[in-house]
Specification:
Elements lengths: L1 H32 L5 H11 L5 H16 L6 H31 L1 H20 L4 H13 L3 H12 L2 H33 L9 H21 L13 H12 L1 H6 L8 H34 L5 H21 L9 H21 L3 H27 L7 H30 L1 H11 L2 H7 L5
Helix pairs in contact: 1-7, 1-8, 1-9, 2-4, 4-5, 4-6, 4-7, 4-10, 4-12, 4-16, 5-6, 5-7, 5-9, 8-13, 12-16, 12-17, 12-18, 13-15, 14-15, 14-17, 14-18, 16-17
């Protein structure tokens, strides 16, 4: 009887930990996604405020030297700046997340989580006072380095759940992302709408301070409510082994070969490598379109920030509806075919967005984009978790997430350069052509 009571109390504690992680992620993602519809206007603002003396003008002078060769309109320069910022942020997250994870294996999850949240709050404070482009870049730099809280959240959930219950707990992470990408951009768009017409001075300080408020709320909530999920007896004794494993998550050659995983048959290793290549190539092209979509609608279709907010709302609602009502119920034997279907669907979405001259074609392409996203990411992660022994699931999913982070670090800058030099239509149609490869690779990949 006493054992049953102890088990019940432990389950209640674990459920509370998962709930705290969910709320923390939701607050973080609301603040993180607020900037999406604001970014084009922000970059236009820093260009106007630079007075040909700051970092923006210095970089712009180098761009203008080659701009004449491509006959690029000056208004597209913000696309290039945005692409570099997006890739820098993702690259810093790609580098810092495994290191933060290794440190948490030694010192515990909660101290590192609090450290990350302090860094994120500091980045929003820097944004609020960023009167020039250099300070804004530094704010994004600090934010990217501090973004290890997402991978820490996954580690905490893995600490407190069994293999059988982990799927439901991880589904909450997907819900947090969906809600964050539904509500966050609308908050940012609302602030942008309120400030339209009087964007003199530091108009962006109000949304930045609201993001800071969310970040500080997240920090205090975790401080007072999150219990340490990794007891001292289960922690790594030395930092050396953890850091060597972290380096395996950063080295691209090791990532693509899945060298950090042991105990696999040759067939399982080949399947993982093919799934990894499929996922990387898909996210590499996908993240480029995802990032440049706001610039396309801003420059070519004249979208306001509020219109962009409604667009992201539609994307988020479509994804949340599919993931909550259909994707999570897909039978195991159909997971691969649904993932392949999603990979095929993203191709016409790129084509429709690339050739769109009006909102009807754009919205149809965006709808296909949201549908394919809901199918591909969830199903690909499910396929990966079926390969290898249970003791290696953490390493396998960690490498897979690192491949995704690397793709997101490269995709925006490459796509932005293409958008800037040859235009959106050629860029998206080329992306659609490249996306023929992922479903073909998946089709000939054996999965259990």
């Amino acid at each position: 009887m006493k054992l049953e009571k102890n088990t019940s109390d432990e389950n209640a504690d674990n459920t509370k930990v998962v709930r705290v992680v969910f709320v923390s992620l939701l607050l973080d993602l609301l603040a993180f996604t607020m900037i999406l519809p604001l970014l084009p206007a922000l970059l236009d603002h820093y260009e106007q405020q630079d007075n040909k003396q700051g970092l923006y003008s210095t970089i712009l002078s180098y761009i203008q030297r080659i701009q004449v060769y491509f006959d690029v309109p000056a208004r597209f320069n913000s696309v290039l700046f945005g692409g570099f910022l997006g890739s820098m942020y993702s690259f810093l997250q790609f580098v810092s997340s495994p290191i933060v994870g290794a440190l948490s294996d030694v010192y515990g999850r909660k101290p590192l989580m609090l450290l990350c949240l302090v860094g994120i709050a500091a980045s929003y404070l820097l944004w609020a006072v960023s009167h020039n482009f250099a300070l804004f870049v530094f704010a994004r730099f600090v934010g990217g380095l501090s973004k290890g809280n997402v991978s820490l959240s996954m580690a905490i959930i893995s600490d407190v759940t069994s293999p059988k219950s982990r799927g439901k707990a991880m589904a909450l992470v997907g819900i947090a992302f969906s809600v964050g990408f539904v509500v966050g951009p609308m908050i940012g768009a609302t602030f942008s709408c309120l400030s339209s017409g009087h964007r003199e001075g530091q108009w962006y300080a109000i949304p930045a301070l609201f993001a800071l408020f969310l970040a500080l709320s997240d920090l205090l909530y975790v401080w007072f409510n999150l219990s340490e999920s990794l007891p001292p007896k289960y922690r790594a004794k030395t930092l050396v082994s953890g850091m060597s494993e972290a380096l395996a998550y950063i080295n691209p050659l090791d990532l693509f070969q899945f060298n950090g995983v042991s105990g696999l048959s040759s067939a399982e290793l080949q399947s993982l490598r093919k799934l990894g290549r499929t996922y990387f190539l898909y996210l590499f092209v996908y993240s480029g379109l995802e990032f440049t979509l706001t610039f396309l609608t801003h420059h070519l279709l004249g979208f306001t920030s509020m219109q962009q907010g409604w667009m992201f709302l539609g994307i988020g609602l479509t994804m949340a509806t599919l993931q909550g009502g259909w994707v999570r119920k897909i039978p195991a034997h159909k997971t691969k075919s649904i993932a392949e279907l999603g990979l095929w669907l993203v191709i016409p979405s790129f084509i429709c967005i690339g050739i769109a001259k009006g909102t009807l074609m754009l919205y149809f392409g965006v709808f296909l984009f949201a549908v394919s996203t809901a199918m591909v990411v969830t199903c690909m992660m499910t396929l990966v978790t079926r390969i290898g022994p249970e003791s290696q699931k953490g390493s396998i999913t960690g490498i897979f997430r690192s491949l995704g982070a690397l793709a997101r670090a490269c995709g925006p800058v490459v796509t932005s350069i293409a958008f800037w030099s040859v235009g959106s239509t050629v860029t998206y149609l080329t992306g659609a052509l490249a996306l023929i490869l992922p479903p073909l690779i998946l089709r000939y990949t054996h999965t259990s």
